[in-house]
Design goal:
The protein is an alpha/beta fold. Helices cover about 45% and strands about 5% of the residues.
């Protein structure tokens, strides 16, 4: 597995890094540029905010002056947690230092990384080549002009594959304060009047077509529940009008969102973009953190989720349609064997997504394979999804998953449930064949 290419069909690396190919400013900014606190040195995939919070640390207490030492002091609380598994050895490692992190070595390590990042060897395109990335997808707003993707596509010096991903969540939540302004912008960008529900549908179709014409292969959806259910057009227009007027209730907003997601599924069955769903996360759980730092700083907590009844209307309508595919992710492990594996075992359009976010850890990866394989087999799983904002973490995260899958396959060989040849073929499929099929690459 170690010499196979990396296929990364879902992640959050900004496309401008590869389009502009400029050196990273410093080690704190190797993650997403929207992370601006002193915790930038510890990305969500390497030293998560929950680890800091549970250890009693905040960016206010750590201070901006010594970010390297601040991260190192979080070291012991990470022992045994999923973040401690993200630094596995790899032939493609991007590490500029092999010293173990501690308060004593933190500044030395920081300086070594900082120096390395200024060299051509650590520029984004050089790392893309060194990591042996075959394909990588970004995550993009429906109104994005995709100028960085277009720049890459037109760059004769660029031979990699970077695709946008259509992420319409904010435009599908009509009970939120920002929604009206967002759909107004959607209308401006698409050139279609979004004053009506029919106009919203047409504008979404227009933007999806624009994304697909610029290389998109999938759409990304994350809401509080997995329910997808249509309502009559007349009722949808009524609720849409209430949302435009700012008088829609929360329950009516949920109803409207579910029919909007159903429309996205209908569009997917026609334009062929693969749907990915990862519902049931309680976002911004700690209000003071959200108020001070904004969204996406770790105050998100897993919730229970139900898929079988929630997805029945959509799968009944599109589950056997020839061009429809959906990849289902969850951080509720209780539904793996009871719901997701049987759904994938029956519907040709359904793939079970890899362990994601809170459960992309070694033990959870093993539990995932054990829970899913007997009903869905190996072929109905998506391949690994790194879901990272931290470019430098990509090879280590894929390497960790490959080692876990290799161990699982080795146990099946030892139990005489697979031959060695079958295990080797399966290992190749999990890394290469499955993501290509699941995301139509």
């Amino acid at each position: 597995m170690g010499e196979l290419p990396i296929i990364s069909p879902h992640g959050h690396v900004p496309p401008q890094w590869l389009a502009e190919d400029t050196s990273f400013e410093d080690p704190r900014r190797c993650s997403s540029p929207r992370t601006t606190t002193s915790t930038e040195c510890c990305t969500r995939t390497a030293c998560p905010w929950p680890t800091w919070a549970s250890a009693g640390r905040s960016s206010r207490r750590s201070g901006r002056a010594t970010p390297s030492a601040s991260c190192a002091r979080a070291g012991r609380p990470t022992a045994g947690r999923r973040s401690s598994s993200g630094s596995s050895p790899s032939s493609r490692t991007s590490s500029a230092s092999t010293r173990p992190p501690s308060e004593d070595t933190a500044d030395e390590i920081y300086d070594a990384i900082d120096a390395a990042l200024q060299t051509p060897h650590f520029r984004p395109r050089a790392l893309y080549e060194r990591f042996d990335i075959e394909f990588i997808a970004t995550t993009d707003d429906p109104c994005d002009d995709l100028r960085h993707h277009i720049s890459l596509a037109n760059d004769p010096a660029w031979e990699g594959k970077v695709a946008p991903t259509f992420r319409p969540d904010k435009y599908l939540e009509p009970a939120t304060p920002a929604w009206t302004g967002l759909v107004d912008t959607l209308g401006e960008v698409s050139g279609i009047d979004t004053g009506s529900y029919a106009g919203w549908v047409a504008a979404m179709e227009d933007r999806r077509a624009f994304f697909k014409s610029n290389g998109a292969v999938s759409t990304d959806h994350s809401h509080r529940d997995a329910r997808v259910e249509p309502i009559p057009d007349a009722e949808a227009e009524r609720l849409y009008s209430l949302a435009r007027a700012g008088t829609i209730t929360v329950d009516e907003g949920h109803m409207m969102r579910r029919t909007m997601v159903f429309q996205q599924a209908r569009m997917a069955s026609e334009d062929g973009l693969v749907m990915t769903m990862h519902p049931a996360v309680y976002r911004n759980h700690h209000a003071p953190t959200f108020e001070e730092y904004g969204a996406d700083v770790g105050g998100d907590i897993p919730m229970g989720v139900e898929f079988v009844s929630a997805l029945q209307p959509r799968l009944s309508a599109f589950g056997t349609a020839p061009d429809f595919q959906v990849v289902l992710f969850t951080i509720d492990e209780t539904v793996y064997s009871r719901e997701l594996a049987p759904l994938a075992g029956f519907y040709p359009s359904v793939y079970v997504g890899a362990p994601w976010w809170f459960i992309d850890s070694p033990e959870a990866m093993n539990r995932y394979r054990s829970a899913v394989t007997e009903s869905a087999g190996f072929s109905r799983t998506s391949g690994f999804i790194d879901d990272t904002r931290a470019f430098l973490s990509i090879p280590a995260r894929h390497d960790t998953n490959r080692r876990m899958d290799s161990g699982f396959l080795a146990r099946l060989v030892a139990d005489h449930r697979l031959t060695m040849d079958e295990a080797l073929d399966t290992a190749h499929d999990l890394v290469v064949t499955n993501p290509r099929k699941a995301f139509k690459l």
